[in-house]
Every structure is written in C-alpha cells, then in structure tokens.
C-alpha cells in the first residue's frame, strides 16, 4: 500500500496592530481582548481534525495573518503544543511564521526558534519612508534593519522579505533603491507583489474619489522587469511569478531552488492543505466510505467572535464548501502550476493527479497559447515563456472552465 499523502497546515492569526489601507485579508486591529479565546478556538479546531487525518504527515506549516507575532510567548507556545498534540509533523517540516518588523524583538524571535520555527517571513514592503507611510505600515526603515539583524542573531538562516511595487506614481529610482537595500541584506528569499486595489478597502475609496491615482499597469510592468534584472544579477532565482530564492551551493538553477517556500509549493502544485482559524481555507482529497475520491474546498467563518462562538459551542465552523469536479481541478492545476517559472506543469504530475493526459485534455488551449508564444510545450512539461510571464493571468484563464 502507498503511504497517505502529506499535507500543508496553515494557521490564520487574524490580528494586527493596525489594518493597512490596501489589505483585504481577514484581519482586524484593536481586538486584543479576543487573543486568548481565539487561540483556544484554533487549538480546539485542530482537535476536530485529529481523527480524520490520523496516519497523514504534515510536510509544511505556515503561521500567517495578520501578524502572528502580536501574540505573546505563551499563546504562541499553546498553538504549537496543539499542533504536535493533534498531528504528525515530519522531521523535515518547513515551519514558517510571518512577522512585522514593528512588532518583534530579539526575545520574540528566540521564542519562535525554540518552538521550532525555521523560516521567517517579514512584511517589509518598502525601504522608502514615504511609501511606508502611504501603505499604512507601523514600522520604519530603521525597524527593518533592526528586526533583520535580530532574526539573524536568533539563528534564523532562512528569511523571506515581502515587498510591494506598482504604487500610484511610484518613482523608478525609489523602487531601484528599495531593491538595492534589499539585496544588501542578502535575505534567503524575496517575494514581490504588485499592488492591487481591492474592493472594500480604504485604498479603493481613495482611488474612486480621486484622492489617489490608480496604479499604472505599464509602470508596474517596468518595475517588475527591473526587479527581475536586479535580482537575477544579485544571485536570486525566480522560481515563481512573484518569488525569488537566493541560489545556494548545489542548487540546480534549472530546477527548484532549495530555499523555495515549501509551503507555498503545496498551493502551486495543487496539493492538499488544511486551514485553521477565522476565514482560513482548506483543500483536501478524501476517500468516502464506498471508496470514491472527493476533492473538497471550504472556508471558515470570517468574523472572529462568530468563529470563536461556533468552535466553543461545537457548531460547524465552515462558512462555505464546494466539491471540485475533475474539469475544474485540472484547470486549477494548470492555473497554479504555470506560476512556477522553471517547473511549470509536468505531464507526469498532471496524470498522477487527474488520471488523464495533459496534452490530450488541453490540446486546443495548448496549440493556441503556443502559437501566440505564451507557453512552451516540451516532452515532459509546459512552462510560461517570458512573454507569457508578463500576461500570466490571461494564460491561466485559458484553462479554466467558462
């Protein structure tokens, strides 16, 4: 018998010191009184899954939010105790935790290391003071340097830094300077995201009212291309549309770098994950009593008080659930996998997931996209071309059902 597949575990901490004006994540500021009850609820929700996932191993853990480091040491320890009490964690498990440079110190980093966290992801966003202010960040540029040094001193040898580009009227020189300062720190991983004006955010209101100019797609493309050039020259390999890993000795630069985020690879390879917490999403393939395979996705209730109450009273916490049919699942495998710049979507992996041949299922789409020089079709896999990388969302949409 084959070993049951491993899965990724995501814990959502829905708290921040301040809500950023561009953020549409399920996060809240000013809810400190809910910290203890929410931690209790997350632990109880993990307990609900113990029996169903017995015999399966966690390959990666990501503690995100929000800002997990707003929790105190005892609350963080309570969460990790619950993880180990309810699940089997692989000895090689990648354990990531998000951190805001304005909410951590050396003692907090030491706590995370003691709890087994071996990868840190810090939301820097910019090295320009005016841009940090526009983005509503609570930290300063100096805070970034202090936090990064403290993380290294605490023993973290795998640190990611997040940045946002494509701000309204962002100066090319400012972005270039941010890249220069980021490279000077020599982080192990970099994530660069283009600013999106999400509905129901203060930024959306500012743009709609004319208070702030709308982001310029052409400018964002120029900034993206500059980042690709600078990071490649600085020794970083772009392995995903928005992610770069520092090349390590022994890395195969044509393949997946060692410092690639293993938890996010679970998402991009359309593998399985369990989300715990308010608004967290999950995706599992489960065998029914009659031996059939069901592929299911669901999301938890978002408001913190309602989530906590449902857990406390034993109610169902899922806000929605959908069964994914094979056609949609195949499209999502393409949409997600093509984000992996070097790996793309392999024929063997596709066939193992869906029991069908990729070149047959998507023959028409592949021919069209290849004719437009947006993908390459090799003997073993499909990848985006440089032109396809610049219009990735259009390529991905071609594989999704109408």
Question: If you had to describe this structure to a student in words, what would you say it looks like?
Answer:
This protein is an alpha/beta fold and 402 residues long. The protein has 2 domains: 7-268, Aldolase class I (TIM Barrel); 344-397, no CATH class. It has 16 helices and 17 strands. The chain has helices at 35-48, 73-86, 106-114, 129-134, 141-153, 172-185, 202-209, 217-233, 262-268, 304-313, 326-337, 347-354, 358-361, 363-371, 386-390, 392-397; strands at 7-13, 15-16, 28-29, 57-65, 88-99, 119-125, 159-165, 189-194, 236-240, 243-246, 273-276, 281-287, 293-300, 318-323, 345-346, 375-377, 381-384. A 9-stranded mixed beta sheet has the order 9-10-8-7-6-5-4-1-11, with helices on both faces. A 3-stranded antiparallel beta sheet has the order 12-13-14, with no helix packed on it. Helix 1 crosses helix 10 (304-313). The longest helix is centred in the middle third of the chain and has 17 residues, at 217-233. It is globular.
């Amino acid at each position: 018998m084959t070993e049951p597949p491993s899965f990724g575990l995501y814990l959502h901490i829905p708290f921040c010191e301040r809500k950023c004006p561009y953020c549409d994540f399920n996060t809240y500021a000013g809810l400190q009184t809910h910290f203890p009850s929410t931690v209790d609820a997350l632990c109880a929700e993990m307990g609900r899954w113990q029996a169903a996932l017995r015999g399966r191993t966690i390959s990666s853990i990501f503690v995100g939010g929000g800002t997990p480091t707003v929790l105190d040491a005892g609350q963080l320890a309570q969460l990790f105790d619950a993880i180990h009490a309810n699940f089997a964690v692989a000895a090689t498990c990648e354990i990531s935790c998000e951190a805001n440079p304005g909410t951590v110190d050396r003692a907090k980093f030491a706590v995370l290391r003691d709890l087994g966290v071996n990868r840190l992801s810090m939301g820097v966003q910019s090295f320009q003071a005016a841009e940090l202010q526009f983005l509503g960040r609570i930290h300063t540029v100096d805070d970034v340097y202090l936090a990064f040094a403290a993380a290294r001193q605490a023993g973290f040898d795998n640190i990611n830094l997040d940045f946002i580009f494509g701000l309204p009227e962002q100066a090319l020189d400012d972005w270039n300077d941010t890249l220069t300062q980021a490279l000077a720190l020599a982080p192990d991983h970099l994530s660069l995201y283009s600013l999106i004006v999400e509905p129901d955010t203060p930024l959306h209101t500012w743009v709609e009212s004319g208070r702030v100019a709308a982001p310029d797609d052409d400018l964002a493309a120029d900034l993206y291309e500059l980042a690709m050039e600078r990071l490649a020259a600085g020794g970083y390999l772009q392995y995903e549309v928005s992610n770069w890993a520092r090349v390590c000795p022994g890395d195969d630069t044509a393949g997946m770098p060692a410092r690639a985020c293993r938890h996010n690879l679970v998402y991009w390879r359309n593998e399985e994950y369990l989300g715990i917490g308010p608004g967290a999403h999950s995706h599992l393939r489960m065998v029914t009593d009659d031996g059939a395979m069901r592929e299911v996705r669901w999301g938890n209730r978002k408001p913190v008080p309602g989530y906590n109450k449902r857990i406390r009273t034993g109610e169902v916490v899922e806000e929605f659930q959908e069964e994914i049919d094979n056609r949609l699942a195949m499209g999502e495998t393409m949409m997600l996998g093509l984000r992996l710049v070097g790996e793309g979507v392999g024929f063997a992996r596709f066939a193992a997931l869906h029991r069908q041949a990729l070149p047959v299922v998507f023959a028409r789409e592949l021919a069209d996209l290849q004719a437009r020089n947006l993908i390459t079709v090799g003997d073993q896999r499909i990848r985006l071309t440089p032109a396809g990388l610049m219009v990735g969302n259009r390529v991905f949409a071609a594989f999704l059902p109408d």
